Amino acid sequence: MPAPTATLPRFQNGARPQQLLTVLLGDYWHTRAEPVPSAALVDLLQVFDVTASGARAAVQRLAQRGFLVGSKTGRQTAYAVSPMSHERIDSHVRALFMSHLPQDWDGAWTLVGYSLPDDAQGTRRLLRDHLRQLRFGNLYDALWVRPGYHLDSLNDLRSSFEGQMNPSQLTVFTGASLPDHSPLDSVQSAFGLPGLAEAYSEFIACWAPVASKICDGSDPSRVDPFLAGSRPGEAALRLRTSVMADWRTLRRQDPQLPHELLGENYPMHGAVSVCATLYDQLGPPAEAEFRRILHRHDERLAELVTHHTFAASASLLSTE
User: Fold this and answer.
1) How far apart are CA 100 and CA 262, in angstroms?
2) Three-state secondary structure call for residue 265
3) Threshold 0.90, pTM exceeds
4) Residues 170, 158: contact at Cβ < 8 Å?
5) Which of 39, 177, 204, 233 has minimal Cβ neighbours within 10 Å of its Cβ?
6) Is 198 within 8 Å of 206 (Cβ atoms)?
């Protein structure tokens, strides 16, 4: 697969301003309740060549979605990240920083089958969407599978469809097993692994050359022509946020299967190595740049800026 002719600007070709802002706040304002001046949020997005009007629109849309909560002191408007439960925060941390790690699996599967009449196309489509969100794979038309035991989540699913379908129309089997040495092609196809493997390979082709230069000690502003003229801290923030935006997209698409089902040389392993290298090494200069921008608006808040890494991601998990 040919490498892209240019690695950046990922934030122009892919990530939207809303996505960039959620990454920035997740990376440097993790679990903080203090509101950040809206002008500072606009300045942060302008690092990524987002116009002031586009940045303000992104902030407003995130507020409308409930991700940000606005407040006003005098003429200054500020936004805090909406509070999240410890369970949700931990789930998010694990999905981004730990879900690639090997997991224990005894070979058991959960199977879901359903039978709906032809005139229930809307219910069928909604049910399929829910099963995908629960990381089930579509083995056959009305047969969905996922490794492990997931009866609780399926009981919740059944409850959410109460009134839309008869309980007898949905059948669940737990503890199912495949014969030893069964071919993995059908399972991998059910979860869309070939397409996902291609996406991981593209991620490596895009970011591995950048990671190699950073590991060699190159100035972040000199690793790509699009960063020429940027200050090192600004370049570090652009690179780190962009690679994490790409990684978030991939991990949300990934069904996070046991490694036994991935086959040999699955490119996810190489992709996480590249991502972790860039993310961890660029952490300090990127944090300093975020702090510098926030300092222009509120010196007290600037002291609260932090960053985290793949290497120390376990420290982000709740102890409660």
Assistant:
1) 11
2) coil
3) no
4) yes
5) 177
6) no
The per-residue pLDDT for range 73-87, each reduced to its tens digit, is 888 999 999 998 888
Q: Which amino acid is at 282?
A: L
Backbone angles phi, psi at 251, to 5 degrees: -70, -30
Alpha carbons within 13 A on the beta-carbon side of 208 = 15
Preceding amide of 9 cis, omega within 30:
yes
Is residue 247 within 8 Å of residue 275, measured between CB atoms?
Answer: yes
Place of tokens 């190489």: 270
Q: How far apart are CA 197 and CA 263, in angstroms?
A: 11
Question: How many helices, marked H, and strands, marked E, lie in the chain?
Answer: 13, 7
DSSP-H helix ranges across the chain: 10-13, 17-28, 38-46, 52-64, 86-97, 121-133, 151-160, 185-190, 193-215, 232-253, 268-281, 283-295, 299-302
CA–CA dist 128, 136 (Å, integer): 9
Long-range CB contacts for residues 300-303, cutoff 8 Å, separation at least 24 = 301/34, 301/36, 301/37, 301/40
SS3 107: coil
Q: What is the pLDDT of residue 4?
A: 36
Model confidence over 120-133: pLDDT tens digits?
889 999 999 999 99
The candidate with the shortest Cα–Cα distance to 30, out of 89, 77, 88, 85, is 89
CA distances from 295 to 75, 298, 315 (A): 19, 5, 26
Find tokens 């997991």 and name the residue: 103
Do 191 and 257 touch, CB atoms closer than 8 A? yes
Query: Do the beta carbons of residue 78 and residue 35 sit within 8 Å?
Result: yes
Starting at the earlier edge strand, list the strands of the sheet with 137-140: 137-140, 143-147, 108-114, 170-177
Q: Hey, CA dihedral for 45, 49, 55, 58, is it positive or negative?
A: negative
Distance CA 31, CA 42 (A): 20
14-to-28, 117, 194, 207 alpha-carbon distances in Å: 21, 40, 21, 14
* DSSP structure class, residue 305: -
Residue 257 has which token pair?
């299967």
Work out the angle between the directed axes of helices 283-295 and 38-46 (0-180°, nearest 10).
130
